[in-house]
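User: Teach me something about this protein's shape.
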Amino acid sequence: MDVNKEREEFRAKLRAGFDLTFQKLIAFKKYKNTPFVFERNGKIIEMTAEEVEAEMKEKKKVKPYKMKTKAHPVNEPSKKSKME
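Assistant: First, the predicted structure itself:
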């Protein structure tokens, strides 16, 4: 296999992994109702997960990730009560 083709495939896999990870982070922030904290132009700002999603879609920096199932954070408790 050509080295350049291998690199492109590796980059595509990395990008897909980063996209999935960020979608899980957004889902986690929504679940916990906690803000994202960023630095812009030397100032610290807080944004909700919904604002981050809207800004990303507006700027089209990240393509929407099409998943068969919804992203769930690892530590999210199940919807069913264990003691019923």
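Now, about its shape. The radius of gyration is 17 Å. The chain has a mean pLDDT of 79. If you'd like, I can walk through any region in more detail.
User: That's plenty for now, thanks!
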